[in-house]
Amino acid sequence: MRVAKGGYTLLEIVAVLMIIGLVGVCAIGHVKRMHALMLEADVRLLASTILYLQHEALATGVAQELVCDPKNAWYHYQGTTSSLSRHTIYGSVPGAFGPPANPERPVVSPVTFAHNKVQIHPDGTISAGCIYLATRDGSNSYALSCSVGRGHMMKLYRYNNGWQVLPLDGTP
Questions:
Q1: 122 lies in which domain range?
Q2: Nearest CA to 126 among 99, 157, 100, 150?
Q3: Is 2 among the domain residues?
């Protein structure tokens, strides 16, 4: 007579694999959400930096400049270089049209400010252009835009099957 050796039944193995799969699916969703939150933090920090530079220009009467480097994912101002988080890039979701206020053409350049420089003049006006930021996987995108006719105002947009204006103060 043979004695049964210790082991797992097929049902036990399938149950364990299903649990591992479920945990994996949940984790992927949380990681994607974390990347989206990191993108939002990056775009809001960039917007705050531009608004800070605008206040500096108004207070001092000295022009300010923010230089974007899409290739290396950083921006530079007043001797400070800030990098985007590793899951954020300069760019937009595939198939997006711009500029956000009047989307007529496909977005081909992640920074439309002349020479990738946001110029803030002593009177507080901001040069016209747009900065597009996206998650590295292209699933989420934001834009900071200053239109020609509204040189004192920067607008924040989020892409969700079209551009939607968001408040710059962080309220939903």
A1: 10-166
A2: 150
A3: no
